[in-house]
Amino acid sequence: MSATVVIGAQWGDEAKGKLVHVLGSQADVVVRYSGGNNAGHTVVTDGQEYKFHLLPVGILHPLTTSIIGSGMVVCPKELLKELDETRKKQPELGKLLISPAAHVVFPYHRLLDKLEEEARGSNRIGTTERGIGPAYQDKIARIGIRMGEFVQPELFPARLKEVLSVKNQILKVYGSEPFDYNEILNEYSQYASQLAKYVQDTDPIIQDAVEANDKVLFEGAQGSFLDIDAGTYPYVTSSHPTSAGACLGTGIGPRAIGHVLGVCKAYTTRVGAGPFPTELLDDVGETIRQVGHEFGTTTGRPRRCGWLDLVQLRQSCRLNSITGLVLTRLDVLSGLSEVKAAVEYSSPRGNVHSIPMNLHDFAQVSPVYKSFEGWDQDLRSARKLSDLPPAARNYMKFIEEFTKTPIAVLSIGPDRDETIVIHENLIW
Ligand code: GDP
Ligand code: IMO
Ligand code: MG
C-alpha cells in the first residue's frame, strides 16, 4: 500500500509539520484529515520559517497536491490569510483542494468556544479558542454548514439564516450580543467566492491516488491523547487525531494504509489543562521549555514539559498501529546529567501499565521512572546514528524495546537537514 499516515503520538506539537515537510517532497498527495486552525505545524526550510494552521504542509512542494479533507473544520478567513502569507514567502505553491464535506468555522463558533470555556470556570479545558469544539458540535448535531454549500451562493444565505437564528438564541443564554446576519453574510460570501475554485470531491481523488500506488501522505494534527474517544477526555479536542481519523476524515479504508509513523518527542509536552503524570514543575522542566523553545505555535502559551511517558507511548503504538516511530527533539535533552522515562504508574489501586480510561483514575497515578545516563554533546550536527553519543543511543534502544516499535526517523533539530532516516523501508 502506498499511503503513509503521520500522527502525533502524544499530546500534540511533536514536530509532525517538520516530518511531513521532509517526506512531502516525495509525496504526490498530502491530506490533512482532522482539526482546524487549532493546529500549528512549523516548517523550517532554506532559512524560512512557516507556521501552518489549516494548509497541509505539502503546499510548499509545487508538484504535490494538498488536500483539506472531510474531517477538518475550516475557518475561511484564516485559510485565505494563510494562503496569502505563504504565497508571499513562496510564490509557487502546490495545488490545493478542499473537500465539500469539511465544515466551516464561523465567528459564532469562536465566540461560543470562549463563552463555554468561561462557563467551565476552574474546569476549563484550555482550548485554543479557535471555535473548533463548537464547529464539531454543529457537525454532530447535523446543523453545520459544509464547504460544499458554503461556496454555493444559492444555498449559503438560507443555511446561514437557519443556523444563526439558533446560535443567537444560545448567545442570549450566555448574556452575549447576537450576530448580525447581513454582516456575516456579506463578509463570508466574499470568502466563499474566493475559495470556491478549490472545492471539489476529494475522496475519489485520494482513492484513485491510493489505487494507483501514488505516494499519499496523511498529515495528522493534534495528538493521539487529544482524540475525542481515545484521549484523556474531557481534556481533549473534538476530532480524531489518531490514525483511524485518517480513514474517517478522507474517505479511505484501513487497508489503504501501509505505514503509520508515530511522531513523538524525546520527552513530553502538553498545552492546555488535564492530567500529565510526568510533568516537571521544577528547574528541569523549565530548562526543557527554554532550551526547546516550548511555546505554542498557535496560541504562544508556554507548553507544560515533562519526562517521556513510555506507558503513554506504548499505548499510542497499539492505538494507532504505529509501524515506525519518529523520535524528535532528542537534541533538547543534551546537557542533562540524567534523563528519565516513565515505565509504569503507581496508583491507589496498585501499579498500572496503561493510561486509565477513567479521568479520575488517571488523575491519581504517579509515574515510576527508569533513569538513563545523560549526554553533553550537541546532537544537531549528527547525520548518522554512529555520530550520536552512546548514552543517547542507549536511550533510543530502550524506547524501541519498550514500545516494541522501531525508530524509523530521528530528528535532532528543526531544519529539514537535521534528520536521520534510520529505516527508509518504514516510510513508504
Ligand atoms: P507539530 O504541531 O507537531 O507540527 O509541531 P510544532 O510545529 O507545533 O512544534 C514543533 C517545534 O519543534 C517547531 O518549532 C519545530 O521547528 C521544532 N522542531 C522540530 N523538530 C525538532 C528537533 O528535532 N529539535 C528541535 N530542537 N526542534 C525541532
Ligand atoms: P498540533 O497539530 C497541541 C489542545 C488545546 C487544548 C485541547 C482542546 O499543533 O499538534 P481545541 O482548541 O482543539 O478545542 O483545544 O487541545 N490542542 C493542541 N495541543 N497541539 C495541537 O495541535 C493542538 N490542538 C489542540 O491546547 O488542550
Ligand atoms: Mg503544533
Please explain how this structure is put together.
- The protein folds into three domains: 3-98 and 203-259, 3-Layer(aba) Sandwich (Adenylosuccinate Synthetase, Chain A, domain 1); 103-195, Adenylosuccinate Synthetase, subunit A, domain 2, CATH 1.10.300; 264-426, Adenylosuccinate Synthetase, subunit A, domain 3 (Adenylosuccinate Synthetase, Chain A, domain 3), CATH 3.90.170.
- Helices cover 32% and strands 19% of the residues.
- α3 packs across α4.
- The strands form five sheets. Strands 7-5-2-9-1-10-14-17-18 form a nine-stranded mixed beta sheet, with helices on both faces. A three-stranded mixed beta sheet has the order 13-15-16.
- A hairpin with a 7-residue loop joins β17 and β18 (419-421).
- With 428 residues, the protein is of the alpha/beta class.
- It has helices at residues 16-24, 76-89, 107-120, 132-141, 147-150, 156-173, 181-195, 203-211, 244-248, 283-291, 310-320, 359-362, 390-403; strands at 3-8, 29-32, 41-45, 48-52, 65-68, 73-74, 95-98, 103-104, 216-219, 257-265, 268-270, 304-306, 308-309, 324-328, 338-346, 366-373, 407-411, 419-421.
- The longest helix has 18 residues, at 156-173.
- Magnesium ion binds at residues 12-13, 39-41, 297.
Please give a quick description of this structure.
This protein has 428 residues and is of the alpha/beta class. The protein has helices at residues 16-24, 76-89, 107-120, 132-141, 147-150, 156-173, 181-195, 203-211, 244-248, 283-291, 310-320, 359-362, 390-403, and strands spanning 3-8, 29-32, 41-45, 48-52, 65-68, 73-74, 95-98, 103-104, 216-219, 257-265, 268-270, 304-306, 308-309, 324-328, 338-346, 366-373, 407-411, 419-421.
